[in-house]
Amino acid sequence: MFQVLTNNPKAYNWWLKRENKQVQVVWQEGGFDSVLTAARDLVHLGYRVINHPLSSSIKPNQTPYKTLILAQGTGLDYQSLSVIEAAIAASKKLGVFPGSTQSILEDLQFMDLEMCREIQLQ
Amino acid sequence: MQLKLGRINITDIKFGDKTKVEKGVLYVSKEQVLAAVADERLTSITLELARPGDSVRIMPVKDVIEPRLKVEGSGGVLPGFISKVEMVGSGTTLVLSGAAVVTTGSIVGFQEGIVDMSGPGADYTPFSKTCNLVVVCQAPEGLSQHEHEAAVRVVGYKAAAVIAEAARNAEVDSWEEYQHLNLFEGMQKYPDLPRVAYVYMLQTQGLLHDTYVYGVDAKRILPTLMSPTEMMDGAIVSGNCVSACDKNTTYHHLNNPIIQDLYARHGKDLNFIGVIITNENVTLADKQRSSNFTAKLADMLGLDGAIISQEGFGNPDTDLIMNCTKLEKLGIKTVIVTDEYAGRDGGSQSLADADPLADATVTGGNANEVITLPAMDKVFGSSKSADIIAGGFDGSLAKDGSITVEIQAITGATNELGFNTLTAREI
Amino acid sequence: MSKFRVVHYINQYFGQIGGEEKANIPPSCKEGPVGPGMAFKAVLGNEAEIVATIICGDSWFAENLDEAKAKVVEMIAQYKPDLVITGPAFNAGRYGTACGAVAEAVSQELEIPVVSGMYPENPGAEMYRRFALIVETGDNAAAMRKAVPAMGKLALKVLKGEQLGTPKEEGYIPRGIRENYFAPDRGSKRAVDMLVAKLKGEEFHTEYPMPQFDRVDPNPAVADISKAKIGLVTSGGIVPKGNPDHIESSSASKFGKYDLDGIVNLTAETHQTAHGGYDPVYANQDADRVLPVDVMRDLEKEGKIGSLHRYYYATVGNGTSVANAKRYAAEIAQELKNDGVDAVILTST
Amino acid sequence: MCTIVPISLTVGANRIVPTVAIPHPLGNPELPAEEEKALRRRLVNKALRALSTEVDGQTVFED
C-alpha cells in the first residue's frame, strides 16, 4: 500500500485520476513543512519514503508545494528517516516561501507534479 | 582512443554578412543562424551579442554551449541531437574557444539564471568572460512546457553548430591531445600508478532537471563507463536549468575541468582510467540502484581512487554520500566535489546528507550568500523575469533596476565540477 | 583620535573578590580595568582602553542565566563600548559558559563584537563559538601570559576593522560560520591535488569537515541487578502534565528533573511529552510508552531490581546541539553518581 | 533503548536495545493494554540483561 501525501491540487487530482487501489491519495493542508511533518510521522510508524523530499532543485523556500509518496513497511526505515529529517532541517534553515502570483503558483504546482509523475509504484 | 582539440581563440564577437573568424573576431551572420535554428514551435527567435565588460544582463539563462566542430574521425559533435549517434571522442575537433551560445527564455515563470557581463555579478559566472551569441526564444501561449523546453534546448545546439562551421577554415591557435588507453594498455603502460576514475553525477529528475547522453534521457540509464574524450565532443548535454548556480550547462560538460585536471596528472601521479557516469533520480530506490552499480563498476575496474562530482541541491547530496561511502567501503579513496547551502549567515549545516567517510571534500561555496547586482544598460531575455526571480526567490528588485539575490541565481556560481575558484571556509 | 572603548567581563575570582565561596555574588561594575584587565592595558596601548569591568560570580550566573545575561548586557550597554572582552576562562566550565553567554547576548542584542579566550575543550567554547572570537588558550591561568597578548592583538584588529585571516592564522576557535572566498586554484585542481595526496597517504585538508562524535569505553557490567539502584533518563521529552519547566519542543535549552515518589504508572492525566520531533499522540495517551515507570515499579516490587531512583531526568533530543546534549549529560551523570545510582536506562524516541 | 539503532551507534552508545517505533519506543498502541505492558516488560528486561552483560565495544542486544 502506498500513500501519496500532497498539498498540491494538481498532483492531488492527477493521482486521484489514476484510480490505483494500491494508492491512497491524502490531501495535506498547509505548506511544504506540513507535508514533511506528516510524512515524518508515517516514517516513524514504518513507512518508507519513495521519492526524495528534496527532489527538484526548487528549494523549500521557493515553492509551497510538495508531493511525497510513501510505502507501507514493517519496521523503521533508517534511510527514509534520515532523508526526511534532513529535508525538515533544510526547510527550516532556508525559511518560508514568501508567496507569489497565481500564474507562478500554477507553474510551481506543475513542476511538483513533474517530479513525481513518472514514479513507478510496484 | 585519441582526440586532438584545436583551439581557435575568440576575443570578440560581431554580426557580419558571413559567419567566419578573422583575427580572433567571430563574425556571425544573423540570417544564417536564424535560418538554421528556425523552429515552428516558437513564435520568435532573436539574436543579441554580449561581450565581456558590456553593461548587459542575460536572464533567465537556459543553457550555454561552446561551438565545436568535428573535422576528422567518427561521428559529429552533440551526438543524438546535431549528429547521429555514432561514437565520438576520437579524431580531431575544433573549438571556438572564448565564444559561447547562450539561450534564454522563460519556460516556467520562476526561472532564475543570471549572467552579468560586468559588475560584481560577473566575478561569479564564467560566462561573463566569453563572447556570447545570445539566442532569445519566445514561445506562443499554450505551448506545453515539455515542448517549449525541447525547442529551446535544440535551438541552442543548432546555433552552436552553425557558428562552429566558422572554425573549419580558421587558423588554429593551439593544439591539445588527449589519449585514452583501454584498461589493459593503461595498466601495462603505468603499472605503478594508482588507477583513478571520475564519477560524474548527472542531474536527472524531470522537466528542467534533465541531462542527455547521446540523446538518451540519463534518468533511464544504469551507470556506465565512458571515455573522457567523449564529453569533449558533446556526448553529454544539459536539459537542466533550475538552480542556476550548481547546474552544469552544456558548456560545462564540454569543458569538464575535473577531466582536464585529471589529464594534467595522468601518467605522472595517477592513471586516469575513465569516467563512470551516473544519475540523480527522484526515488530512493533509484539512488540505491545507481550507487550500487557505480560501486560495482569501480570495483570491477580495480580503482584505487575516484573523484565524485555532484550536480544540484538537496537530494543529490544523498546520491553523493551513497556513492562516496560505497566506494570508500570498497577501499577506494574518494574526493567529493559539492557546494553548500549554509544559510545567508553561513551558520547552518551545509549539506542535506553527511558521513564521516566523506573526509575529503571540495566545495564551490555557499549558494545562500547574498549579492546586489547593479542595474545594467541592457537586459537580454525577459526583463519581466527579474521581478519574478526577485519575488519568487525571496530577492528584491529595486526601483533603480538593481537586484539583491542569493548567488544561487547566478549561472554557474557554485559549480560542483570545480569550474571556479569560489569556495568557502569556516571562520 | 579618541581611544576605542572596551568593556571587560570577568568572574569573582579574577575580579579579586574571592574564590568558590564568593561564586554566588550577582554582577557588579567597576570603572576601568581590574585583575587581568591590567595586563590588557599594556597590549591595547594608546589605541583602546578598558573603560569598565563587569564582575559576576560563576554560580550566580549559571543559576540565574536569563537574569544574569540581561543584567550584564544592561551594564555593558551604558558604557557604549566598541568591543567587549570576556575572560579568558581557560578550562573553567562555568566561567567559560558565562563568558560565552555574555558574548551571545552582547553580539545579538547590542551587535558589538566580542573577543574571548578559552581552552578548546571548555564547554563554553563549543556552545558559544558562533558569537565571539574565542582565542585558543591553555587550560589554566598559567596561560594568562600568552592569552592576553593574543586576545588583545585580535581585539585591536577587530576594532580597526582590519581583514581577519583564517581562524588558524588568527589563533581563534572556528565559529562554525561558512564564508565564501576566491581560492588561488579552481576547485577541480584542488580536488585532484587532494586525491593525489590522499592516495599517497599524505596529509590533506578537507574543505568541509563532516560532523564527528565521541567514543567512550563501556562501563563494566552491573554485578547484581537485583540490588542495583536504577535511574531513568529520556530524550523523549516526557514531562509532568503542563510542562512546568517549559522545555522547548526542539533545540532544548535545558533538562528537567522530576520526582517519581509515589508514582506507579504514568497516565494521560499526569504526564505528557514536550517533544516536537514526533507525533505526540501515543506518548500523550500513555507516557510509559517512552519512559517505562509502570514496568520498573513492578520489577522493583518483585525484587528484580534493587530500586527505581526517585527522580527521572528528561530533555528533548529534537534539534538539540551536541554541545548542549553533552553538557546536560555531564550534569545529569554527576547528580546520578552523587545519589548513588548504579545503572541507568536511557530511552530515546 | 532506542528505535534508531544507527544513530545510537553513530553517537557512540555502548549497550543498545532496539525498541518498537519512534513515537512509542516502549509500547504498541495497537495491542490490548495488558499485552502492551508485557511487551514493555520484555524490552526493559532486555535492557537489564544488557546492563548485566560485559561488553568490550558497542553492542546491540537484538534478542
Q: How can the largest sheet of chain D be summarized?
A: 2 strands, parallel
Oligomer: heterotetramer
Tally of individual helices of chain B: 9
Give the low-pLDDT segments of chain D: none
Q: Biggest interface pair, residues each?
A: B-C, 54 and 36 residues
Question: How would you describe this protein?
Answer:
- The complex is a heterotetramer of chains A (122), B (427), C (349) and D (63).
- With 122 residues, chain A is an alpha+beta fold.
- Chain A has one domain.
- Chain A is 43% helix and 14% strand.
- Chain A is built from 4 helices and 4 strands.
- A 4-stranded mixed sheet of chain A has the order 2-1-4-3, sandwiched between helices.
- The termini of chain A are close together.
- The mean pLDDT of chain A is 94.
- Chain B is an alpha/beta fold.
- In chain B, strands 17-19-14-20-21-22 form a 6-stranded mixed sheet, with helices on both faces. In chain B, strands 8-9-1-13 form a 4-stranded mixed sheet. Chain B has a 4-stranded mixed sheet with strand order 5-12-10-7.
- In chain B, a hairpin with a 5-residue loop joins strand 25 (396-397) and strand 26.
- The radius of gyration of chain B is 21 Å and the shape is globular.
- Chain B starts with a strand and ends with a strand.
- The model of chain B has no long low-confidence stretch (mean pLDDT 95).
- With 349 residues, chain C is α/β, with parallel strands linked by helices.
- Chain C has 2 domains: 4-173, Rossmann fold (3-Layer(aba) Sandwich), CATH 3.40.50.11400; 225-347, no CATH class.
- Chain C is 34% helix and 21% strand.
- A 7-stranded mixed sheet of chain C has the order 2-3-1-4-5-6-7, sandwiched between helices. Chain C has a 4-stranded mixed sheet with strand order 11-13-9-14, covered by helices on one side.
- The longest helix of chain C is centred in the N-terminal third of the chain and has 18 residues, at 93-110.
- The N and C termini of chain C lie far apart (60 Å).
- Chain D has 63 residues and is mainly alpha-helical.
- Chain D has one domain (5-60).
- Helix content of chain D is 41%, strand content 6%.
- Chain D has a two-stranded parallel ribbon with strand order 1-2.
- The two termini of chain D are 13 Å apart.
- In chain D, 43% of the residues are buried.
- The chains are: A alpha+beta (122), B alpha/beta (427), C alpha/beta (349), D mainly alpha (63).
- Chains in contact: A-B, A-C, A-D, B-C, C-D.
- The B-C interface holds B 123, 194, 196, 257-258, 260-262, 264-265, 269-270, 304-307, 333-335, 337-338, 340, 342, 345-347, 350-351, 354-356, 358-366, 369, 407, 415, 417-427 and C 130, 164, 166-167, 174-192, 194-196, 198-199, 204, 206-212.
